[in-house]
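Notes from hallway chat w/ T.B., transcribed later so I don't forget. T.B. wanted the structure written out for a chain they're using in a teaching module, and asked if we could keep both sequence and structure tokens in one place. Agreed to drop them here.
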Amino acid sequence: MHRFVLSTVGTSLLSNQLRQKDPKNWQVMIDKTANWTEDKIQKYEPDVIDIILELKNRAEEKLYDGNILNIREASAELNGIYGLYQEQINQGKQDIHFLLASDTYQNKITSEILQSFLINQGINISINKPAGFTTGSNEAFTQGIDELLNWFEETIPGYKDSGYEICFNLVGGFKAIQGFVNTFGMFYADKIIYIFEGVNSELITIPRLPVKINTEVIKPVEFALMAAENSVAINVNQLAKVPESLIFVYDDEAILSNWGRLTWNNCKYDLFKKDLLLFPCLVYEKSFEKDYLRHTVDDKIKYELHSALAEISATMLKFNGDTSRINKRFRYKRYEGSQKCEGGLKKNEIDHFYLNKNEGWRVSCVIEEIKDSQKKTKKVLRMRHFGEHDYVNDNP
């Protein structure tokens, strides 16, 4: 079985290269700038760049001397990876590895050292660095966690469906990041590995726990809109009985918390494969509802349709019905041709879009203006047909 291995990256590879004869302020400066970007270091403590580069050279010398004991002592991340393969690193050549780094200069240098070293060992390794991701501020950390969760959701299920074992190596990394990723691992990973401190350390493996989400407190439409790429805030009155841990409330509106996004990611598939959900700014013709019942034998198609409807609904809400803002991956556009279609419309008066991951299926729709309950004009998309390419094209 092939593995997908995610390793959290810290800065111990650099700090482990400090020597007693080094200037006493080196340790202080390394600690002080651990969460700083390169630009910030250049502006306020430019001499630290030279310190970091010297430690980088020392680290590379130690890694490339070929002594496995030295390699494992130098890097917590490599200690975990070598432990995973019982020190036979060549066993990992068929696996996929990612290094999870914070958006800081020291972590950039550390992850690049590790990437180069592992590539040299024949390992398929990439770096994932969420933009602005640091433990230096709560705002930056929260945004980084959100981006990380999105990356997990976009990346890991595909590997899992392809038969990969998902392994989180949490031996290295910042403590705050380790704590969050450990929790995420309970949902995404097949196993989490740690390692005891010291020489000849033993690997600690934590299997995935059978976590069950109480979906009764989840409101599918509202959660889907808050989780959309063009996300929208939801009035708290629409989120009665939703646990406070799943949302952030500002005045009378709420957005998903990190835990809310994690919860949604792990239950949306089951909720999206049930009955057709009604989203704001979308109106369903009877023909569309019949198509849903007739064509959605496959749960994956139901899921992809609901995912598309949620994204398009959120975009319509956020941008006041501007269909030009719909994500390009749906390939939203107007049909060509003047032939008459049901409802008295010509084909070139009807729009259509593809499902996100299945270009063989599409939805036809018409943009129109209606009056809401307060007599205000708003734009909606009236969904006409849903199904395979030829079925919808021939009968939009």
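Follow-up for T.B.: The mean pLDDT is 90. Might be a good example for the class.
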